[in-house]
Amino acid sequence: MSANSTRSRYQSWGRYPPAKHQVRFLRWRHEPLSHIGASSVLPFGNGRSYGDSCLNDGGLLLDMRGLDRMISFDKERGVLCCEAGVLLGEILELAVPAGWFLPVSPGTKFVTVGGAIANDVHGKNHHRAGSFGCHVRQFELLRSDGSRRICSRSENPEWFGATIGGLGLTGVILWAEIQLQRVAAATMDIETIRFADLGGFFRLTEESDASFAYTVAWVDCASRGNSLGRGIFTRGNHAHHDPAPAHATRSALGVPVELPRALVTDTAVRVFNAWYYRRPLQRIRRVPYDSFLYPLDRIRNWNRIYGRRGFFQYQCVVGPSDGRDAVAELLSHIAAAGGGSFLAVLKVFGAIPSQGVLSFPRPGITLALDFPNRGSGTMRLLDRLDEIVRSSGGAVYPAKDARMSADSFRHYFPRWRSFCEYLDPAFSSSFWRRVAS
Amino acid sequence: MSVPKRLLICGATSAIASAAARCSAAAHDLLFLVGRNPEKLRAIADDLRVRGAAQVETLVMDMNDIARHAMLIDECQRRLGGIDAVLIAHGTLPDQAACQVSFEATRAELETNFMSVVSLLTHAANYCERQGKGAIAVISSVAGDRGRQSNYVYGTAKGAVSIFLQGLRNRLHRRGVRVITIKPGFVDTPMTADFPKNALWADPASVGRGVYRALAGGREVVYLPWFWRPIMLLIRAIPERVFKRLSL
Question: What is the DSSP letter of A53?
Answer without folding.
Answer: T
